[in-house]
Amino acid sequence: MTSELTYRRHEHQPTSNIYSPKPSKPWSITIRPIRYILHEQRLIFTLIGIVLATFFFILIPSSTTNKPMSRPTQLLNPRPVFNTNRYNSGGKIPLGLKRKGLRVLVTGGAGFVGSHLVDRLIERGDSVIVVDNFFTGNKENVMHHFGNAGFELIRHDVVEPLLLEVDQIYHLACPASPVHYKFNPVKTIKTNVVGTLNMLGLAKRVGARFLLTSTSEVYGDPLQHPQVETYWGNVNPIGVRSCYDEGKRTAETLTMDYHRGAGVEVRIARIFNTYGPRMCIDDGRVVSNFVAQALRKEPMTVYGDGKQTRSFQYVSDLVVGLMRLMEGEYVGPFNLGNPGEFTMLELAQVVQETIDPNAKIEFRPNTEDDPHKRKPDITKAKDLLGWEPKVELRKGLPMMVSDFRQRIFGDHKDNDAAISSSF
Ligand SMILES: NC(=O)c1ccc[n+]([C@@H]2O[C@H](COP(=O)([O-])OP(=O)(O)OC[C@H]3O[C@@H](n4cnc5c(N)ncnc54)[C@H](O)[C@@H]3O)[C@@H](O)[C@H]2O)c1
C-alpha cells in the first residue's frame, strides 16, 4: 500500500529534476500578481466579499430609511425621536399568533376627557386598556364598550406600579377640577408625581410612546397674555392650588427627563378649559356650574366681578388635538385650547341664551389664586400639528346641556345623538 501511494505521488512529479521556466509573455508582468491573487488568495477574497456585503446590508438601508429630521423637529426635540418603529416593538410574533393592532393605555380613561378619547381610539380600531381608580370618573362613561373584545377596564391607582404591554400611553389620570383636586391635596400631588413616574417607567420598560395631559395651570396667574408655550408662568408654589399646578409642572419635568435621559418618546399637551358631555355635574368648573344651576333654576354663581376671562374648548376638538400630537413627530409642549376669550359674565349670558333667558346671576367673593386671564396662543399647534378647534361655544354648549339635562332630570331625549354628533 505504502509503495503504491509512493508510486502515485511520484506519478505527477516532473520527470526531470531540471527547472525550466516557461517563456514569459509580454503582458504577463502585470497580469501575474492578479492571477496569483485569484488563484492562491481565495480566502482573502472571501473575507473581502463578506466585509463588503456587511457594509451594504447594514449601512445602505439605514441611510435611506432614517431620513434627517426637519429643522423644526430638531429645534423642538432636544434629542432625536426614539423607537419610531413602535408598532412592531414586540419583535417576532410566534407562528400561529396574529399581530395585534395598536395597543393603547388610557389612564383616567373613565373620566370626562378620557372617555371621549377612548371612544375615538376604539372607533379607529385600536385595542384600548383603561386604568382608573374611579375617583372622579365612573364606569357609565365607558360602559358602552363592555363586551367589545378590543376594550379592557382595570380598576387601579396609578400611584401603584403596573406592568402592561402597550404601544402608546395617554396619561390623563388626575382630578382636574379645583373641588376634586383640593379635596385631598397630598393625594393630588402624589398622583401627579408618583403616578406620572410609574407611567413613564412603564413607557420606558415596554418602549411605548407617552403623552402627558398637562394644563394651562402651569402658567399660574399669567403675566403674559395670551400664553405661549415658551412662557414659564407665574405660579404660587405654596397655595391651595399648588398641589395641582406644581404637580403638573413636576410631571412635565419628569416627562422631559425621561425623554432626555432614558430616550422615552414623549408628548406634552397643555390643555385649556374644556367642556362637553360627561363632565362631572357640580365639579366647581365654571361651565358645568352655570349649566347645572341654570337647569335647576338656581342663580349662576359668579366669583369676583365676573370680568376674569377664560377660553372654552369643546371636548371633541381636544381629543383630535391629543391624537394628532400623539401621532405626530413633535414633543411639545403644545397649548390645546380654544383662543376665543369670554369673561365669566359673557359666559353666563351664553348659558342664559341656551337654557333660560331669565336665569339669575349671583356674585360671590373670588377664590384664592384664581387666575385673572387665560387664553391660549395656539400658533405652534396650528403650524406643527395642523390643529385648531372647530366647535364654537354657542354650538358646543347645547350638546353639553342636553347631556346634563338627561343626567339631572333623567330626560333621555336627544342625548345620545348629541354626544355622537359632536365628533
Ligand atoms: N378638562 C379640562 O378642562 C382640563 C384642563 C386642563 C387639563 N386637564 C387634564 O386632563 C386630564 C383629564 O381631565 P378630565 O377633565 O377628564 O378630569 P376627570 O376628573 O373627569 O378625569 C380624571 C380621571 O382620572 C381618574 N383618576 C384620578 N386620580 C387617579 C389615580 N390616582 N389613579 C387612577 N385614576 C385616577 C379619575 O377617576 C378620572 O376618571 C387630567 O389630567 C387633567 O389634569 C383637563
From TrEMBL:
GO terms for cellular component: Golgi cisterna membrane. GO terms for molecular function: NAD+ binding; UDP-glucuronate decarboxylase activity. Residues 105-400 form the NAD(P)-binding domain. Its cofactor is NAD(+). Residues 361-381 are annotated as: Disordered. InterPro entries: NAD(P)-bd_dom, NAD(P)-bd_dom_sf, UXS-like. Keywords: Decarboxylase, Golgi apparatus, Lyase, Membrane, NAD, Transmembrane, Transmembrane helix. Pathway: Nucleotide-sugar biosynthesis; UDP-alpha-D-xylose biosynthesis; UDP-alpha-D-xylose from UDP-alpha-D-glucuronate: step 1/1. It is a single-pass type II membrane protein. It is found in: Golgi apparatus, Golgi stack membrane. The keyword Transmembrane helix applies. It comes from the Eukaryota. Its EC number is 4.1.1.35. Pfam families: GDP_Man_Dehyd. Its main location: Golgi. Catalyzes the NAD-dependent decarboxylation of UDP-glucuronic acid to UDP-xylose. Necessary for the biosynthesis of the core tetrasaccharide in glycosaminoglycan biosynthesis. Belongs to the NAD(P)-dependent epimerase/dehydratase family. UDP-glucuronic acid decarboxylase subfamily. This is UDP-glucuronate decarboxylase. It comes from Artemisia annua (Sweet wormwood).
